[in-house]
Amino acid sequence: MKLNYLSLFLILFFSIFQFTEQIGVSKSPWPDKYHLELTLSIPGSSINQPITCDYDLSSNKVRIDQYHGLSVNLFRYDQDPKYYYEMVVAQTQQICFKNHSNLYSNTIPVFLPDYSKWTKLDPEVRRGVRVNAYQLTTKKHDTETIYTFYINTENNHPVQYTVKGVLDIFAQHFDEYIINYYIYIPDRVDDSVFDLPKICAESDQYSYNHVFGRNLFNFKKLFPSPIKEESEFDKFLEKYSKNYAGEEYFKRKQIFERNLNKINQHNKKKSTYTLAVNKFADLTFEEVESIYLLPKRDVPISKQSALNFNSEKLMPNDQLPHHFNWLNYGAVTSVKDQGTCSSSWAFAAAGTLEGQYFLATSNLESVSAQNIIDCSWESEYPSYGCDGSSHWKALNSVKEMGGFMNKNDYPYLSVSGYCAFDKSQSLSTIDKIVNITSSDYEVAQSLYEYGPMSISLHVIESLLFYSGGLYNDVMCSQENVNYAALLIGYGFWEEDPTQAYWLIKSSWGDTWGDEGYLYIARDNNLCGVCSEVSYVVLGDISSIDN
């Protein structure tokens, strides 16, 4: 599977964070106050991200800038109450959200590794500088991961940090990651960098997700957990490359054990589906709602400007095949991972555009979800970037925008960026949007005739840990939809030929569910699968492979 290097890259930026146990208490060889400038790169790709960090841990203040200020994270824990400020791009301007530090209230990110217990190697030369090298090697499933840290022999300043191995980011993939440190100024920092920018000082906006550090939370970590008990929780930490310390470790362990108990209790019962531990297992459902799911919608789908569905054009239901799956026809791209950006709405919209483009050209293109995220703030039915929206709003925005771009030309960042839509690179335009809010028979007929369709779902706790089989939890309602996905198939369950099902593609990566997919019963519009269904009719096609 071709990796989205920029998406991986941003994840790795946050994954190098370690967390101190208490505010202002450093657990590393580094001082409480310093300025740091570095780049993070992936050899073999064009990625070379500049990052600037300023730390004053003794005063509980940290600022981290990515891409020369495109995204800014400012921790002001010297305030009462403690606030975390997040400056992000909204289409053409930068805006500021402020958040209470309710999730990581006792932690601040530290950007340099604690190498004190690593093995010292022979001195060598790196980037023209003589360095001391320190190395840690871990082994998982017969695969080694090697962490190496290089320090200037004259002044003990950081020079380079490298990681080589399988990191379980999106898939089992061997790679190399390099951090080059260019400026390190210990024991002093320009205090003015912690001053609140005007847009933050005047801001009364709270993140729609109301969770501190949405993009810091739950990203993969490059360093192993400092606590080495042999427990199911530690196996989980290792598998998903997570790292907690102090009170946070024990808090997350308790949550994990509660979720694990629920999973085991379900799997002991006779059921048509199974549950399993996945990346959500150390979170409460409320945290998952805040980070990954969508907020309550402000405009129902029936109110938006789109064509009403005309069922008279469909073939009789008895003429439909009993099983149908657009995967078998090449109309569906690989499962993506939205990360901690609440962007399922954009991936669902991108999926139906991919299907329509394939049907028109016989070419399967990965449509840019980032393009949709960045450029949907100012449409008739606005979206809110990584704070969520609806798939039908996204399609409406694409129609207004006048096209949509390829993922390779507009890669995924997992944060909101400046709108960079280039109409000259657009794959096509949307001529019409069709919404279906009627029976599942009409949804099945439309799916067969018109291609993959974006849908809304009501996600409940049991669905979070779905790992296979036919999902049929009757507690999942038709209302309160809070997630968007792509409907790609239907059929009848092999173990019970009388039971019809839908096949749905998620945006939670291929480690969730059945390799990223969900089989769900077609009973009584379970989980609201048929409540909000959309597809499009494309306009001009800019590129057809002859």
UniProtKB/TrEMBL annotation:
Top-level lineage group: Eukaryota
A GO molecular-function annotation: cysteine-type peptidase activity
UniProt KW keywords: Disulfide bond, Signal
Signal peptide: 1-22
A Gene Ontology BP annotation from the UniProt entry: proteolysis
SUPFAM superfamilies per UniProt: Cysteine proteinases
Keyword Nucleotide-binding (UniProt): no
InterPro entries: Papain-like_cys_pep_sf, Peptidase_C1A, Peptidase_C1A_C, Peptidase_C1A_papain-like, Prot_inhib_I29
Residues in Cathepsin propeptide inhibitor domain copies: 233-288
Positions of the Peptidase C1A papain C-terminal domain: 320-537
Pfam family, one: Inhibitor_I29
PANTHER family registered for this protein in UniProt: CYSTEINE PROTEASE FAMILY C1-RELATED
Family stated for the protein in its record: Belongs to the peptidase C1 family.
Name the record gives this protein: Uncharacterized protein
